[in-house]
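step: validate -> pass
step: tokenize input -> pass
step: predict -> running
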Amino acid sequence: MADLFGTPVLPGLASADEFITPAEERSAIAAIDAADLSPFRFQGWTGKRLTSSYGWTYDFDAGRLQEGEPLPGWLLPLRDRAAHFAGLSPDVLVQALLICYDPGAGIGWHRDRPAFGHVVGISLGAPAVMRFRRRRGERFERVSVPLPPRGAYHLSGEARHEWEHSIAEMDEARWSITFRSLRPPAG
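step: predict -> pass
step: emit ->
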């Protein structure tokens, strides 16, 4: 997403409309609905959204990253396209998160876990708005970015590491596929 002069709304945020076709969207939604989804859990709290992770999973109760089931075959062409969009090699995107947001579900303010690097998402179903904020003294600086159906976004650099993001509760169903890289070990 950029302004009229091509400057990104947030440094490190890129977006693309019509990243996949309507037929690919229907197929992806059906595949997500057929996946083994379970309610999101965070330190004993259960969220309204349903999720499933592949490649790597983050256990929020234990606070650790662990290897998970391999990415299913249907996700690989989408992962490859997401990597190309982000200027990455496909083998760098080693984690995939499927999410089903039923009506009334959203996602609170957060940054993706520090173990992850690049974040590339594909938005399916109802249009949404991804809200960004970062603290500036006593206040928050805020930016809102539309997530159209079949669109994609890439978070890196400042947008990924300095800003939190969220999606407000919605009245309609929405699905998403998020691919992530792992951050290289510090040292």
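step: describe -> The two ends are 33 Å apart (CA to CA).
step: cleanup -> pass
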